């Protein structure tokens, strides 16, 4: 390494030229990331400008923090900020432990066939489109013909208008999300579990440890790094959520809980062509997400020994 | 001594039984909604709507399917989506497999900084509006490219593939290829890729399903009805009951002709089950075939986290 650094620049060029094929293979990706990832980041400056389609990004005049001020002082800000935060924190709390438990349980199954069938079935909903999932939710919860309401009526209750009750939106969103993704999310934990050194179990069995104790003292601790990483990543999306699903579930009567930052940006930006204001809100959202990610990552590095970087 | 070991054996069995029973009910909960859609799609509308359909189809018929199959919209959506899925997935694979291979060469100058710049986009992005403006200014609206190019590769998948290359392709093999005079491109094509079937299958499935299920991009970029993707078509078909719902809210029980409403909804509702099956079946049929590779691909690919 030192030797390489000591060499003159000319040889650096020679190394690059000799391996030009590697760079050639990377070229399509470089073009993609430059154009479609860094391009929009460059375009983000319209959040600080009075963007005018005719003048273009560069030609529009600077507006400072006008749009940020307008958003933060507007009546909608606290409502959608709270909705976004509540929805994702609630989803993380109810949804996070289940894949771990599922992986621990699947790991104990001895019949390979049963395990495989359970896996195949529980992964399936993950591959269904959001459009279909939301249609299924709507169909099942329909007040006139939905299965759920038929059950409620069979027990003597009255049909519930699930989809138009603001208070129910978060629960429907979170639990349908669990149904769809719990199996799939368990894969990564299951992968970590298969990597455990079998001699650990043998040692534990010699010491007379029960199955539950093995799970508690061997399996769970070995999952810790994966759990921490997943937690950091979900914290980084704390002002996010499944945008497409929220958008598809929205209807006029539940906007007080179902309107979140991303759907607001969509309505404002694409629906009403308020490009600068909606970009500013987008920037605000990404910056907060990024700060939370950095914070949680730092905490995890201090407290435990696992972090993203 | 013997009694004790018997006891332990028995406790283990109880554990297994409880575990299996819980998992069995869990699987049932996951599977039932899918099963219900299937049986509802072949049952008589009135039976479904009055809650008679539970375990088996009632008055089984395929009327729903024959109506759906006659819809030119659905066929066109199918065609657009099939083309999108094939073309899109090929482009995705080309970029992901080559990019990931190049990024394993971290000893070469510039590769590490490039890797960092790519990874940064996983955590920070320009967001919806600037992307939308960019795609519009490139003149890609109302073309299939708007649905393919903005998501042509995902860094998350590149990392999975890169980890797979690194952990399951022996360095000696790569060295041998170089000694035999293979160029990097030849090494990738002749040595690396043939050994990477699980991860290639996994990627094909990820990207393919992504394209098949793509909705939002089509919603904002496609106005031309001839280019409507399947998801856009079925959303519009399935939307009717939402309008119905909104009507109900506005009527607020003010004695809107209840009979009329129920008639409209009954027809629409059963068709929906058939539409759901028709649009979802291809994906649910393909994925179990690839599952074997899938699990291996993910497990090796994600070992490093």
Q: State the major sheet of chain B.
A: none
- Name the CATH architecture of chain B: Orthogonal Bundle
Order of helices and strands of chain A: HHHHHHHHHHHHHHHHH
Largest interface: A-B, 104 and 97 residues
Pattern of helices and strands of chain B: HHHHHHHHHHHHHHH
Helical fraction of chain A equals: over 70%
Question: Explain this structure to me?
Answer:
The radius of gyration of chain A is 25 Å and the shape is globular. Chain A contains 17 helices and no strands. By secondary structure, chain A is mainly alpha-helical. Chain B is mostly helical and 305 residues long. Chain B has one domain: MetI-like fold. Chain B has 15 helices and no strands. Chain B has helices at 2-41, 45-49, 63-70, 72-103, 111-123, 128-137, 145-148, 155-168, 171-179, 184-192, 197-213, 216-221, 230-238, 240-251, 258-301. The longest helix of chain B is centred in the C-terminal third of the chain and has 44 residues, at 258-301. Mean pLDDT of chain B is 85; it is low at 1-8.
Key words describing this protein structure:
heterodimer; A: 309 residues; mainly alpha; MetI-like fold; 17 helices; 74% helix; 0% strand; B: 305 residues; 76% helix; disordered N terminus
Question: How would you summarize what this structure contains?
Answer:
The complex is a heterodimer of chains A (309) and B (305). With 309 residues, chain A is an all-alpha fold.
